[in-house]
Amino acid sequence: MPPLTKAAADPAAPVTKTGPDGPPGDGRRPRRPLGRHNLYGWLFSTPFLVLFAVFMAFPIVATLLMSFTDFGARHVTRPLEAEFVGLENYTKLFEDDRFLTALFNTAYFVVVGVPLTILLGLLVAILLNNGIDRARTFFRVGFYAPVVTAIVAVAVVWRFVLDPSDGLIAGLAAELGMTAPDFLGSETWAMPSLIAMAVWRNLGTVMVLFIAGLQAVPADVREAARLDGAGAWQEMRRITVPLLRPTMLYATVITTIGYLNVFEEPFVMTQGGPSDATLTVSLDMYREGFNFFHMGYASAMAYVLFVVIMGITVLQLRLLKDNTR
Amino acid sequence: MHRATPAAIALTVASALTLTACGGSGGADVDADAEQTLTVWAMGTEGEKLAEVADVYKKSHPNITVKVTPVGWDVAHQKLVAAAAAGKLPDVMQMGGTYLGEFADMGVLEPVDTQTVKKGDFFPAAWEQASYDGETYGVPWYVDTRVLFYRTDLARKAGAARPPATMDELLKAAQAHQDKAKTKWGLSIQPGGLDTVQSFYPFLYSAGGEIIDEDGKAAVNSPEAVKALETYGEFFAKGVSEKAVRPGYDVTKDFNTGDVPMFFGGPWIMSLLDENYPDIKGKWAVAPVPADKESVSMAGGSSLAVSADSEHKAAAKEFVSFLTDAKGQSDWYERTRDLPANQQAWETGTLATDPKLKVWREQMETARTTPSQPRLTEITSKVDSAIESVTQGKSSAKAALDKAQAEIEGLVE
């Protein structure tokens, strides 16, 4: 996109399309109206622009507009009859107990789930990178397989694992003479169970990122550290972790975004139950939007979630910024 | 990018709005005798079996081709809403009982001509479910209700000579099953989650309660409803019903093993048990819902509705009456085991003679339904939460239903 690159190179230059190509006085090149250049550019990017406009920009804008209306089932056939209600949807949201529960549950999921995923992912990556020589591929595939497995299949397996009467964990506990809790049926245990499942599912992605990051750590730096007498722990703390910082930032940001949007796990495993103990913001939004058809209200929810995600991501980018450069 | 994006958005918004807005215009009607194709949407098993009937129909009506599109129940509601928005509803569609009010309210359904389709031919609850705001928008197709399924062998062990006739007897029988027949549970009823209300309806209606009264007002905290929920909660408090049931729980599995000796089930459970668990054939039976004030179960099922935009209304109506007259309904029962909504269909064949089916018929005659409401799903979801808070011992029946009443008052129209 010529106007943008130009603006970046020379902030003082006017970013108008009818403006001259290059600074005035540059007489060597024939003056061609920039419009022509732009036309080709626009033509070549038409496929992208059309797709973007139809499938991204339009829904985003429509959702924003909808969030200020009372759009419901009866406006489906007469969309223009939806009434503008200002900020009412937003104020109603923060008086809605279910939504507040959903916000809390989502926060719980993120606060426990993200650090667990990152730490375990790092641990597995380090082990696979250094410790385990044999069957390395086997383990890599093993840890990555959950990422590419369909959620429905995962749900079947996890239901079996967590089943209170004849499940894997319940069976093991019975062998040891203990009773396992009813994981998905108890309000205390349902969320931790889903977190465990999510960590298991997302570990693979984080692991792959960290392995790539670890392999980019220069060997000479490690060697120098060792020559200076650093032990394994010091090497890890002073060399590996700081040099992995950009990778860690990226992994944390995408995991957090994914977890804030968490939908599939509660949807397939608990439907938000028992007693809304696993109701997340996305699931609540789905219910309001598609079960009850409060499109206006659900859109407002989507924007609140969007603002939360945006805020947290910016915060993370600032806090975990690479200070070594 | 600065320039074109707003323009592009404006264009897409404008075109999308025109696309959706023009849904309201209906085309010219085509005569029933003319060569034409009818589009029909049906859900689940009905969608699979209806194509066979469409072929039969083609033989007697060579000018009409019926194109059946099966739609899964899980996506049915969304597909119908999307089609309604785009003005692309099929000529004829199966309407789940709980959907009708919503779509009638959108104005996308053609009212039924009550001169030709007689109210008296159908079960009263089925007719009510197909009506909204004084008009009838669908012709009842099949009905569904809940009756008590029980294991006769286990009942004998528990010392019960006959199935429980009252709610008190039901609780005692459930406890006797646990004590004497050593079953894990006494009765399976849903403790919480989506559509728990379906499990609660037999208790509610039998006690004389209702969610919305005849005048369309919320009535869920009436003394009758509170009593019904107290009875319901007692099964959990006394430990005869399981408090935590995961979504997608299949009660027939535990019924087969004997862990669950009694539950309330719909008509499809009969064929399910016959097909999947031949071992317990002859060891189970159905009985009417135990009476509280009286024995009243819930009515569900589907009706057939014609789209208001259809260009083939004449032919569509003929096809609908072909499916819903007594002959069409008996034939449909043979194909699907769906219980006919047309009472005359029950006068002939297995429907008239089978003792198990007699239970269904009697239950259906008195069964009740919640009046059609545009926000019915949302209303019942409030009752779901109330039931759950009682079964989990978090709230008294009165307090839970008072809360639900306040919420539902804002939702009824």
What does this structure look like?
The complex is a heterodimer of chains A (325) and B (413). With 325 residues, chain A is mainly alpha-helical. Chain A contains 14 helices and no strands. In chain A, α8 runs antiparallel to α11 and α11 runs antiparallel to α14. Chain A is globular. The N terminus of chain A is likely disordered. Chain B has 413 residues and is of the alpha+beta class. Chain B has 2 domains: 178 residues, Periplasmic binding protein-like II (D-Maltodextrin-Binding Protein, domain 2); 186 residues, D-Maltodextrin-Binding Protein, domain 2. Chain B is built from 17 helices and 11 strands. The radius of gyration of chain B is 23 Å and the shape is globular. Chains A and B meet through α2 of A and α1, α3, α4 and α16 of B.
What is the topological layout?
The complex is a heterodimer of chains A (325) and B (413).
Chain A: H1 2-9, H2 34-66, H3 88-93, H4 97-131, H5 136-148, H6 151-162, H7 168-175, H8 187-215, H9 219-227, H10 232-243, H11 245-260, H12 264-269, H13 281-291, H14 295-319
Helix pairs in contact in A: 4-8, 4-11, 4-13, 5-8, 8-11, 11-14, 13-14
Chain B: H1 4-21, E1 36-43, H2 44-60, E2 64-71, H3 73-86, E3 92-96, H4 100-106, H5 124-129, E4 131-132, E5 135-136, E6 139-145, E7 147-151, H6 152-157, H7 167-179, H8 196-206, H9 223-237, H10 251-257, E8 262-265, H11 268-276, E9 284-287, E10 299-306, H12 313-324, H13 326-336, E11 339-340, H14 349-353, H15 355-366, H16 376-391, H17 397-409
Helix pairs in contact in B: 8-9, 12-13, 16-17
Main location (chain A): membrane
Membrane topology (chain A): Multi-pass membrane protein
Family (chain A): Belongs to the binding-protein-dependent transport system permease family.
